[in-house]
Amino acid sequence: MCRTFMGVLCVQVALVSLSSGDVLPLSVYSAVIHCLERLMLSFSLSKSDREAVSSVALERYDSSSLSRSLPALGLLLTYLYTGRSADQASGIGQLENETLNDPGMEGQLAVLEHLTKILDRMHKAPPFEANIVARMLPALLEDFMPRHQIMTKVVGEFLSSQQPYPGLMADVMFKVFENLIRRKESDFVTEWVLLSLGSVVQRTPLAMAVWSLNCLFVCSSLNGPIRAQYPYICRYPCLCERLGRFDDVDGEFLAVVVEEFYNNRGLLKHQRQSLVAVFRSAAADHEVYQHVVSLLT
């Protein structure tokens, strides 16, 4: 442990330097971040020092410009992957079986708070940074969160009207669903699709609702040819423009993916009824949903 007076002093000076905001020259800022990362990786910091470093890193990541937020994100990731909760990432521990009374659960809740902050940052991050975060999120969430919390965060962010990057969140959802399906947890994915449908069909405008439905069914599909359509349905070169459009092909594709889900997913009777009921509730206002209902009944 870094318990010597000089060691503690160096850490405190580094933290104070980072807390000074954008006053610190970028080269010095990067060097301080790098030094703290090395201390983390060498497991030379006490628990209190680690927590202090993580707090400052989170603050700098949440409030800094791109050139300073990304190094702070690297420090935050180093903290996450060198702490006790990193046992979950390595398979040593199982976070999903923990309870609030278990030793170390307080630290795990802190990790969940950090992950939530990383997700929240996407709301105000520039496109380049948001792209970087979206690429690492599936693995990061899987390493540290139980699956039900992953689905709550990912699906919730995908459906949020405040999310400025729905296309990136669709990418995250596609990868998260893919990982669950690979682990033979497709029934869990099915449950979440059915739970989410009511919120998706209520999105406005209609073009956004249909795009979201297509993404949801493609991401959750077990059918290879349908999953292969993801780049063409959910990732358009000009996605922002595409989200505001509704063509006949969008409705036709929705009918295909919903029918495939209905017939080939092994749904129970009450699940089929629930699926039909969701689309029937919106069919009075939108012809595209009427067509879906006619195919399922």
Q: In terms of topology, how is this protein built?
A:
Layout: H1 5-19, H2 26-41, H3 47-63, H4 66-81, H5 86-90, H6 105-121, H7 127-144, H8 147-159, H9 166-182, H10 186-201, H11 206-220, H12 224-227, H13 230-233, H14 239-242, H15 248-264, H16 269-283, H17 287-296
Helix pairs in contact: 1-2, 1-3, 2-4, 3-4, 6-7, 7-9, 8-9, 9-11, 10-11, 10-16, 11-15, 15-17, 16-17
Structure description:
With 297 residues, the protein is mainly α. It contains 17 helices and no strands.
Q: Provide the β-strand percentage band.
A: under 5%
Shape estimate: elongated
Helix content: over 70%
Instruction: Please tally the helical runs, counting DSSP H or I stretches of 4 or more residues.
Output: 17
Question: In sequence order, what are the helices and strands, one letter per element?
Answer: HHHHHHHHHHHHHHHHH
Largest sheet: none
Cα-atom radius of gyration? 22 Å
* Uncertain regions spanning at least 5 consecutive residues: 90-104
Mean pLDDT: 83
Can you count the beta strands?
Answer: 0
Taking the alpha carbons of the first and last residues, their distance comes to 67 Å
Structural class: mainly alpha
